[in-house]
Write the structure tokens for this entry.
Amino acid sequence: MSFSSKAESIPASEKIWTRDFILICIANFFVFIGFQMTLPTIPLFVKELGGSDQMIGIIVGIFTFSSLVIRPYAGHALETKGRRFVYLFGLMIFTISLASFAWIASIALLIIFRLIQGVGFGFTSTATGTIATDLIPPKRRGEGMGYFGLSGNLALALGPSLGLTLVGVISFKQLFLITAITGVIALLLATKIRYKKVEPVTRDTSSSFKFDVFEKTALNPSILLFFITISFGGIASFLPLYAAQKGVSGIEGYFLMYALFLMLSRVVAGRIYDLKGHIYVFLPGAILIFIALLLLSWLPNTLTLLLAAMIYGFGFGSVQPALQAWAVEEAAPNRKGMANATFFSSFDLGVGVGAIVFGQMAYLFNYHVIYLAAAGSVMIAIFYYMIILFLTWKKAKN
């Protein structure tokens, strides 16, 4: 059977690669390439402005915490104001904040606009995950989220290396203006997407206030993601400085290899998730992340750096989409937005906690301690997952 006949045999309701899914993937790519270009260069910019390692941690962390605070509101807004409004609103704030970096000349202003950027990113990333979930057939959600993740991974393959390369030949002002252009492109593409209409939700008006900032069905995968992404905060904030301190070259290659293996793992892991469930994806992926962090804490040469990138990329690329699919699959249709908000809030919290705590560790000890501590956080995630499995088995037995 030819490829075309196979494609034609798939019912329209089960197809992943629709017009709107392709548009959200491309828009997501442009959002993330702009974001990823600033990820390794913001610490360098802070150093140029006279900031310390502690300040780097605060500036990275404050972005993620502002994103974290706004996500519950974004989740509610997705179900009340609609996908289109939330996505376009977030993209506008995110793009304006990137452009504003071009005229920042002090740490204080950088902190303010990083807060604004976090708000824009919180709206944008919560919306885009929910929009992708809407567009993917439920029976192929793990596979579809893996494909969707490739758009961000491709940006990750290009963004950090491109940002580090450009900052060596152009000014920070020019770099930030280029990242703002990627936001404008994403905004234009987002206007062409046909969004799912929001179904009216009957709300309980018996009480004037209901504490509702997370989706409880998404808590377990979100807690696991939190402990995994603490390690991400250490890599994103301090790896370029750590490699320079140790005299290890190839930091651009690290981000490239990491992203390539991230992309390789996503398609494979997504299909395994759909067929076998998260047990066949999470544990192998988390163990790979743990090994990669131990290699980074050692880091004797460039070969070790690149090997760690491959292992971490394959591990994280397996774990993240599986956890996201798990987070949304049990949520009610009118709670998918809040489930995604809960999931990405844990991502933000992990990166923010990692960046701030590791900034203090770098100041008090040394960069290599960061990666040992991050490996310990991943081990906590593995233990917590084993507890989930045990409780699930015990409940099924009873």
Summary: The chain is about 80% helix and 0% strand. The chain has one domain: 17-196+214-397. The domain at 17-196+214-397 is CATH 1.20.1250.20 (Growth Hormone; Chain: A;).
